[in-house]
Amino acid sequence: MTNIHKHTPNPDHDQNQEHVHEHIHVHEHDHIHTHNHEHTQTRAVINRLSRAIGHLESVKRMVENGQDCSQVLIQLAAVRSALTNTGKIILQDHIEHCIVDAVENQDPVPIEQLKKAIEQFIK
Question: Are 18 and 40 in contact (CB under 8 A)?
Answer without folding.
Answer: no
